[in-house]
Every structure is written in C-alpha cells, then in structure tokens.
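User: Working on a comparison across species. This one is Aldo/keto reductase from Limosilactobacillus vaginalis. Can you predict its structure so I can line it up against the others?
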Amino acid sequence: MPQIGFGVWKIPFNQTAKVVTDAIKNHYRLIDTAKQYGNEEQVGQGIKDSGIEQKQLFLTTKIFNGDQGDFDKLRNAFNEQLKKLGTDHVDLLLLHWPVFNKYIESWRALEAIYNDGQARAIGVCNFDVDHLQNLMDHANIMPMVNQIEFNPRIHQPDTVAFCQDNHIQLEAWSPLGNGQLLNSPVINKIAKEHGKSPAQVILRWELQQGFIVIPKSIHEERMRENRDVYDFELDADEMEAIAMLDEERHSIWYDKYKWSGNPNGLDDYIAKPGEF
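Assistant: Here's the predicted structure for Aldo/keto reductase from Limosilactobacillus vaginalis:
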C-alpha cells in the first residue's frame, strides 16, 4: 500500500475523471473513493483513461452506511460499486462509519468479500477504541486499516495508540485539515527553514508517524508538491512544535451522522452531481 495516496472527496463531478487521470500521470498509485462520494463511476473512468492497468494501482472504496447491517444487501451493493469502478476487485474495502448495531454484521460480509478475493484487504474508517475492540471481539479477520481524521489539529491519541498496539495501519483523511492549517505561523516558520511549503511540512509530519496520507488537489502542480516530501526530515523539536497545535476537534460536520447520536443524520446521504 503506497504511503501517499490521492483522495477524491468533494472533487467536482465533471472534473473527477480528468483529475484522477492527472493524479495517476503524476505518479499517484493509491486512489481513495467511496460510494457516499457519488463518484465511483468517474474514478473508474479516470483510471481507464490513464492507460495504467489496475494491477499497478491500489484502489480503495468504502461501504455506504445505508447498505450496512444486512449481509446480502451489502454484498449486492458492493457488486454494483465494482461495476461502477469497472473492476472485479478493490485493493482495500472499508466500512465508512461504525453504524450503530450494524457494523458487526457488516464486517461479516466484508470477511466474505475478502475470502472471495473481491477485496485484497479490509478495514474501517472512523472507528474509535470502543468500536474497534467490539469489532475485534466478534471478528474472524482483524481490521487491517483504520482511516481516521488526523492532522495537526486533531490527533485522536487513544485510537492511534490502540491501532499501533494491534498492528492496524493508520490512514489519515483530511491530512491537511481542510486547508485551515496552511496559514499557521508555526508551520510556515518550519516550512521556510526547510525550503518547503506548509502542505509538505504537514504531510511530512504525518508520514514520520507512520500514517498513510490521502491529500487531494485538482491542480497538477500541487499534486506533484504533495508527493515531494522525501528529501527532508523534521527533527524532534519541529515534530513537537506541530503537535502542540492540537485542538482535538473534529470537522464541523462530523456529528451529522446518526451513529454519533444525531437522529437526523446523513447515514443515507450520497453526494449528487453538481453539489460540490
């Protein structure tokens, strides 16, 4: 699994295929999408247009919350996702959210998908320690990845420690904090000292902690910039200075999902063309 991937959340629908093709052209080999993003078909087209065989890529998608909880429903829905992606398998399949009273049965379906070769690895997103422990108590196959919100503003230390202790690979969504960290004086000072951009410093901070990162951009120059992070290293003082920016606050929309206690949440919501 590449340590730097490319995320496609909120990329405009009419640009997604080209952006994915551009990302692959600029040497991204991990592409991360989800049914909830509503763009799996465009991602599949972008991969096709790139001329790169899928076996040279690492393709991730996620199970939609509205498809969770019923073994057959989930499997049938995932088969439709594969058709949209234009493939017979993905490299990583994740449960998008820990939907209350449904994620254990959903995991049973993921185990079957894994055993049948339709996913070469399976994991979860947004699972905290309690969710992970409960899942592992019922699982035959342990989750291989936990994709969580992680950047200098939110560290989720208990979840990170649990995953590290249990050999679950951590992957950071929103690794650049929705761009809100790019003007940080602390990060800009470190960036200037290394002759790098603030985004490169943030990604380097995460990579040095063993995270996989999936930044996104529709601009090829920034795509290349986000990958150019292996020719410098942050020292211990710099790592700590960035860590001190922690506010331990989720994104503003994080509590809009029913699993977190909101009865009018977005569990059945799929993005629509033209919305982003």
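For your comparison, note: The beta strands are 6-7, 30-32, 58-63, 92-95, 122-125, 145-149, 169-173, 212-213.

User: Helpful, thanks.
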